[in-house]
Amino acid sequence: MTALLTRPAVGVPTIERLGVDAGRDRRVRVATGVALWLSLLLVTYWWITDGGGTDLTTGWETGLTSVGRLSGLWSADLLLVQVIMMSRLPPLENAFGRDELTRSHRVIGFLSFDLMLLHVITILAGYAGARWSLVPSTTWDLITTGGGILLSVAGMVCLIMVATTSIKKARGRLRYESWHLIHLYAYLGVGLALPHQLWTGQQLLSSPGRTAFWWTLWGCAAGAIVIWRLVLPLTRSLRHGLRVTSVHREASDVVSVYLTGRRLDRLPVRAGQFLTVRFLDGAGWSRANPFSLSAAPDGRSLRITAKALGAGSARLAHLRPGTRVLFEGPYGRLSDRVRTRPKVLLAGAGVGITPLRALAEGLAYAPGDAVLLDRFTAEPLFVPELQALTTERGLRVIGLPGPRRRPDSVLGPMAGDDELATLRHWIPDLAEHDVYLCGPTAWTAGFARLAVAAGVPPTHIHTESFGW
């Protein structure tokens, strides 16, 4: 096992310095929300100036067509917005974090999909003169004669497949790797819609302003994907040349993989973040999986730790030293970026302790100002390392062993029936802490509610869950 890489204790930054990144991220969040709503208002304004509002009152045929035009404009705008959201654009990743971007992406994705279906239904009905019996023949005529319509149908099929597999029950039946592969078809679906918009949606290009708006939005979406999902990961992988140096079993179903490479001191990674990794060791190399760093980066090596939950994480135990690695990232806001207070509480469940272990090493804090709650059922992880951090950095560790006695239990059997009173007893000044949470989605949500009840403002609770 590679020795623990401990950092010397450092002074606690001032509150003003701690909040610099958080303030910048707040401004990005506000600007992003304003830009989204302005884009929707702009395309609505253009629809109105084209007579869209008037057409609603002149008959079923024109009314349905007008609704179809507006829903199509909204759908196209939101489809491109969600592509940009998931492009790994650094300002958005830093300001929102992967969990929040994923939740917003899901909401906007289903909304844009519903608007797309509304667009198709109302346009077909309008073109058929509001006579439903003519819809099949009208559909066929549009597919065979309309410019780009056939491509848009193929794109819609891709988006239907993505939306269907994004439903919670369907998602639960798929492996992460399979779901991720299917989800990539969303890019194909969005791309296939472009010719249809250019050839048949002339309202999109009927003025220089509209042309500039739509081409800029398309260009930003395509450019963000190419740069941040393809070019940058490939460039970083080649520049740093990550390779596996050793594999260490932390528990019966948990392993750590140690990586080294070139000029890692220039990789902008922080304790608490994660990498999306592909191990070039044969079958399965093309499937990428996210793995949290379990040790603070020191500029010489990296360590990721994972539990054998799926095919991607299970194969970590069989990696050989020297295996080459392609990676994307680093990603995630569960780092010092969101911190605004000198005191911190790090709470993890199971293998969720992984990024918190890195934070316990990498964050700056005075002795006694950092508390780590380790919730586990079978065996704790990183015991010698946490003991070393307790001795060298003044970290306070509270182990929470044992199975849950009831479904809503957060702290486990040690806490008794009144978990809120127990948490306040353990950490009387909890309301003065930044709270970092990592674990299963239901557990992090339950702990967040407990922390709020204990007086912690929601803006000082930072979570990362294992859901996808």
From TrEMBL:
Its cofactor is FAD. The chain crosses the membrane at residues 30-48, 68-86, 107-130, 142-167, 179-200, 212-232. It is a multi-pass membrane protein. InterPro entries: FAD-bd_FR_type, Fe3_Rdtase_TM_dom, FNR_nucleotide-bd, MRET, Riboflavin_synthase-like_b-brl. This is Ferric reductase-like transmembrane domain-containing protein. The keyword Flavoprotein applies. Keywords: 2Fe-2S, FAD, Flavoprotein, Iron, Iron-sulfur, Membrane, Metal-binding, Oxidoreductase, Transmembrane, Transmembrane helix. It comes from Microlunatus aurantiacus. The lineage of its organism: Bacteria, Bacillati, Actinomycetota, Actinomycetes, Propionibacteriales. It is found in: Membrane. Residues 237-337 form the FAD-binding FR-type domain.
